[in-house]
Amino acid sequence: MNRRIGKVRILSKVAENPTKCAIIYFSQTGNTKKVAEAICRGIRSASGQCDLLRIQDADIRNLTAYDLIGLGSPVFVFKPPINVSIFMSRMSALRGKPCFIFATHGGHPGNFMPAAAKILGRQGLVVIGTFDCDGDVTRPFYPYPFWTGGHPDEIDLEMVANFGKEMIERSQRISLGEQVPLPQFEWLKDSLYYRSVKVWDANKIRSKEFIVAMTLDRMKCTYPECHLCVDHCPMQAINLSVTPVVFRKGCISCLFCEKICPTGAIEINGDFIEKRWKIAAEGFKERGYPEFFQRAKTELIGNRSTLFRKLNEVDLNDPAKIYNRVRFQRPRFIIS
Ligand SMILES: Cc1cc2nc3c(=O)[nH]c(=O)nc-3n(C[C@H](O)[C@H](O)[C@H](O)COP(=O)(O)O)c2cc1C
Ligand code: SF4
Ligand code: SF4
Prior knowledge:
The chain is α/β, with parallel strands linked by helices. It has helices at 2-16, 31-45, 82-88, 112-122, 154-175, 192-202, 228-232, 256-260, 270-285, 289-301, 306-310, 319-327, and strands at residues 20-25, 49-54, 68-74, 98-105, 126-134, 214-216, 238-239, 246-247, 266-268. It has 12 helices and 9 strands.
């Protein structure tokens, strides 16, 4: 009976004081942006107010006016990207505020959530919820179609909007002094994360081989008419207005500059791509990828994965066929 009375009291108080929420997100190919927008819709429909900010536009000092903070990001190499980690590690002015974390990824989020929660916890924020969602992967040396192709889809976005509503409700309950169970984070040891690493290890890739060699061909570059790579590098690692030019200073190998360059002036080392093609195709056939797909299907994405719809299109005997579509297209990705 008490619970019921408590609930009625909470809801009427909430209606008088809508929670102010800010969602800050990093997104390169748009997956995390879609999720951020859907969460925002969910929060607004639950009578909260919600502002949506790109990470590059967010000033942490202005976030103190908000009651609830949302942080969204793609997963990069099983963790938050470095620019996002740096942003989170500067949030101590928001100490004591509730926050939620969301991420998009290509099926192996790895230790993204525990790592993000650890950084935010150190800044004194209280993580009240997390959501991770499949997202298409457009890396040039990944198999294509990828098993999370087509995500986030409508069903994902509906779930995500409900997550937004849940976050607003949970933060309101907390602000009213109610004891609400908080998420616990477990660092993954025996998981798909390690499984995928084992597949790469089995193919004798050493960690230094994850570093991608890239070149900038000034003859093909049309700067200053084009300045896409300069504007969109998350680390401000490119400066083409100085001599000699700065290229990849503090680079995190996200490869976005290569993906968006309209002329092909930025190129990934061809040997690197060839090697990755071969290894991935072998992995597909022999080294556990069928099992990996199965696990991805049953444990992660269910039967909504476009990979399973498109698998017949993929010729595992010809790696080039898997990758050609993304490899020779220029630009590989058009920023909307
Ligand atoms: C540099 C880089 C590293 C990535 N590492 C992972 C990873 O470890 N696990 C994973 O599942 N997806 C990984 N991905 C895929 C992205 O997380 C996924 O495509 C994400 O949805 C992209 O988000 P965005 O469209 O908002 O930029 C990686 C992508 C990039 C560019
Ligand atoms: S790969 Fe390109 S866009 Fe990404 S951090 Fe490096 S220089 Fe910047
Ligand atoms: S995106 Fe390509 S063409 Fe444009 S400035 Fe960068 S290197 Fe030059």
